[in-house]
Amino acid sequence: MDNKKYFTRLGDGEGVFMKKAEIREDVLAGMENAVTKGKVTPLSSSDIEDLVDILTLPEKNVSVERGYEGIHTFDAGTLKLPIRAGVPVDRRTALLIHERILCNDTMELCNTDYSYKPLKNIVSEEALAVEQAELDCIMPIFYGAMPNMGSYTEPDGPYPNWTMLMTDGKVKEAMQAQEEASKACTDDMIYIAKHMIAAGVDGIQFDTCGASGDGDILAALNAAKYLSEKYPDVSITMGMANEYHLGMHGRLKFEGDRLAGQYPHKQVKSVEKAGAHSFGAVINTNSSKSFAWNLARSLTYVKACTDVAEIPVLVDAGMGVGGIPLTNTSPSDATTRVAKAMLEIGKADGL
Predict the structure, then answer these.
(1) Of 131, 145, 254, 281, which Cα lies nearest the Cα of 204?
(2) Is the pLDDT assigned to residue 43 strictly greater than 90?
């Protein structure tokens, strides 16, 4: 019996030591959680053993085998260094650092107010930033933000707050408010995207889609469909907000499929129908569970997603998603193991 203890982490980032048997037990429990909730196929026995091996590798940081490399990109791209890390550089410099030092494959230009609605007031300035970025960089540049349909409610927006309406028992009024807000949200995303495309951007990113429920994801899907049909040469990528879509409305459909309750393996099919070119799968980290539990759970969802996907799957792997501990600065011993597991076992196309 292997009584050796291996360094690993909890879902909140705390370092702990666990026996291999304990790690395997948590791997199985995390996988079963995904199987039960998402109604997906469990990992194979060989996948489970491969994951346990990755989790117990003696190296502090690990890497993929040659041939399993994946695309590396960012959402909230130009917020990472100047805002999240507090490095005093402008967005143009941040892009060049990611291209020429960190060797990113693509990068996203974005604004500090990371939502499409407020960008209307500064769209001309943002378009100029896109034009300059395209002149500076070799790697493809996306422009992105969140649909953030919640910002369309009173007092910041023109529509009644559907959460308050539902609390008051006004269900029909709440549903109508979401439908109207979703349409306005779509229009704003298309408006901003058109300006960025005119400025020469390589792609548009709709990030954290579904944060305000099924009306939010519907807005993004409708915008993606319009743009993919009108601008077929512009790459559209969509990253989710959650491992399943919250049914704040409950009856909204896209191309005949109900959006509420969709897990990654169904989310990706809706994104494909919208004509988007890549899909950002999100699986939330449970900070009260172990890193092994969270990674196994995330990997199970991702494997089910890549099994059916016809477009590239780019796993959201950062603070509190994709199995990575819920910390502002993710520990590299965890992030590298997530990368290795997602690319080698999960068959993801990138992170």
Answers:
(1) 145
(2) yes
Q: Token pair 């907000």 is at which residue?
A: 241
DSSP code at position 234: S
Identify the sign of the CA torsion 341, 329, 113, 107.
Answer: negative
> Residue 299 above 80 pLDDT?
yes
Contact 280, 321 (CB under 8 A): no
Retrieve residue 203's tokens.
């792609």
Spatial neighbors of 39 by CB under 8 A, at least 6 apart, are: 263
**Burial annotation 198-211 (CB, 10 A radius, 16+ → b, else e):** ebebbbbbbbbbbb
Q: Which amino acid is at 113?
A: D
C-beta atoms surrounding 152 within 10 Å: 28
Collapsing DSSP to helix, strand or coil, 21 comes out as: helix
Say how many C-beta atoms besides its own lie within 10 A of residue 33's C-beta: 18
Q: What is the pLDDT of residue 329?
A: 83
Asked if residue 132 has pLDDT above 90, the reply is: yes
pTM for the complete prediction? 0.94
